[in-house]
Amino acid sequence: MAEGQQGNDDPPKQQPGNEATPLEVQTGQAEDVNAAITGLEPPEAPYFRPYMSVEFVVTALGAILVIWSFCWLYVGAFWNPSTRLSNLHVAVLDCDVTPPPASLNASFAPLLPALLPAPLASQLLAGSVWNRSSPLGPRLLHWEPASCGEAGGAGAGCGPREAECVASLASSVLQGETWALLYFPANFTAAYLAWWRDSGVAGAGAGGAGGRKQPPTATYYYARGRDYSTHSYLSSLVLSSLGPALSAALTRQLAASPAAAGGRLEPLFLATGISIAPVDLAPVRNFGQHFASYIFCVLLWLGSSFVVAASYQFKLPTEMALAIDPRVGGGRQVRLRHLAWALLVKGLVAAGFMFLEMVLLCVVLWCLGAGGSGAQWHWSAGQAIAFGWYMSWSFLSVNAVLLHALGPDRFSSASAALLIAQLTSASAIMSQELQNRVFYVGQALPFFYGVRGFRSIFFGTLTDKMWINWLVLTAYNVVFLPLGLLLVVRRVWRNSGRGAQQ
């Protein structure tokens, strides 16, 4: 009986002619491994579900609502930016002064109080940008009066350090404290009086090349590299609207002037008027590089989401051993060693992938800029690679947290939704000042600082705030990298523990 029982427990012998081929053996082993790993992974929703069901209808309606909401966000954010131009701060520096009567001809000096009771720039500004009822007033842009310390102010001039003061205010434009600077020099009124016959003024601004008189000229400082689209709106207002409006106001004033009617003013001035000279502190020689400042962030995000998803889907031999080999799962030290090796290999592969991607992105700029005016590097391409690579670590960690928190089925949708939200709110396509205040949430997301960092490297804007970009990305890395590693370790360790129990 014992022998009979033992014979029943023996595995059945292979019948002649039914031996398994090596290929079948390998295939069977692979299927066993896949089945074991599938059984150890966190349970997901069943593959086959009824198509016409309440669950499908709810899911479809939810998808439509999400897509519709993003349409509202994206299209609504840029629907009519001109309605929020008053959020843009523009500094106005009025250094204009009236020439002293001693510098005028004796016959013209008595006319000056009636002709110009105040410096010309002060009069024009009082009737336009400082006038709340004017269409060019505070309702259009947020005009801010600027001064040069104790010296300066409307009609008081800016003192002997005017050039230094203007340079300081222009630097503040470059560093993002204001969007632009409108500067009226001390000789603005003098240049205007030079067009009056027998005024005796023939100094600065009156004599140009070939002895031609120059119109009174203000200077408009801006930095297009900070935000190309925003400055397109702003510059069109200042150069195309404010300049002609000031000239028209001066023409109306001259029409009621007896001195002008008496032929003292040269008629050519009525055709030239006043002028506003633009000075771009951070020019964008190639629009494509401005576009690259935010499309680089998009591509790095897509690359990081691919790496995270691939690392989740494809297993290393050590991960498979942890999942299916009870002897490996049962030894704590062996499990720790296998887990550490898997994390090290996949971490190095992810870092290498993102570094190569960032290098290839900069290669595009090198190639496109080789034949023309060249790519712009206020700093260097190496700094762009280092910054983009460091930012990609934040993207990797955030995507890893999304994947392990929501699961592989929902990860792609969540990652795409966060990508769109960041692109919309990162002051990438349009500045946040021209969007609804809900988009200020972008200042808490890494995209905002990535776009700003690339524009600092490319065009030299906001360079004094570059340390903030590094600091915020470091904060993301410090918080989300350990959190992502914790979730990965938890998943692998749980699977290895389940493997030990089988």
Task: Throw out a few tags for this protein.
single chain, elongated, 2 domains, about 500 residues, 5-stranded mixed sheet
Question: Can you tell me about this structure?
Answer:
The chain has 502 residues and is mainly alpha-helical. The chain folds into two domains: 83-280, no CATH class; 286-501, no CATH class. Helices cover 58% and strands 6% of the residues. The chain contains 18 helices and five strands. It has helices at 2-9, 22-40, 54-77, 112-115, 120-126, 162-174, 188-193, 228-255, 258-261, 268-272, 287-313, 317-324, 326-330, 332-368, 381-406, 408-425, 446-459, 466-501, and strands at residues 89-94, 142-146, 180-184, 217-222, 275-280. Strands 2-1-3-4-5 form a five-stranded mixed β-sheet, sandwiched between helices. Helix 15 packs parallel to helix 18 and helix 17 (446-459) crosses helix 18. The longest helix is centred in the C-terminal third of the chain and has 37 residues, at 332-368. The two termini are 32 Å apart. Residues 1-9, 11-18, 22-30, 35-45 and 203-210 have low confidence and may be disordered.
